[in-house]
Amino acid sequence: xxxxxxxxxxxxxxxxxxxxxxxxxxxxxxxxxxxLVNALLGHAEGEALHADGTGVSADQxxxxxxxxxxxxxxxxxxxxxxxxxxxxxxxxxxxLRESAxxxxxxxxxxxxxxxxxxxxxxxxxxxxxxxxxxGRCARARECW
Length: 144
Hints:
Low-confidence stretches: 134-144
Distance between the termini: 45 Å
Order of helices and strands: HHHHHH
Largest sheet: none
Number of strands: 0
Number of helices: 6
Number of domains: 2
Radius of gyration: 19 Å
Shape: globular
Structural class: mainly alpha
């Protein structure tokens, strides 16, 4: 919770006792951790959303966005990159599907939900195709 404290989004005591009690209340440490990590991710993405609009150049913005890829080790690993991008797409598809259930959102949201679903399936196929080639080729392009 130190990260959410730093971002200014955690207002409790941040004690071991507090976290143990909350995990027990929610039914387990794994689920509690999942909730905490996703809350942190949401706060960090909100901060990134605001930071992206601070008037930096396109090159600076691209470099900053690559930081997220570097943090998960996906810059020099095509399979990991595709897997990470698929994970991100899955996180987009869910809320779009939920929003598309609301009849007031219109057909464009439903189309976006289908597009996100299609993209995550394409990324899954691409990622699956990366693994067999990477062991036999020095560079992925040599396999094509």
